[in-house]
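Mods, move this if it's the wrong board.
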Amino acid sequence: QINNIMLQCSHQRVPLSKLGVMKRISDRAWEKLFLK
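Not the wrong board. Structure tokens:
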């Protein structure tokens, strides 16, 4: 399981101040990361 809690605010959404830290990945890449 991938833990992204450090990027989320208390409302379970990404705050604007953290958008520069995030990357968009493909569905296939997500599946590979998630299955590790």
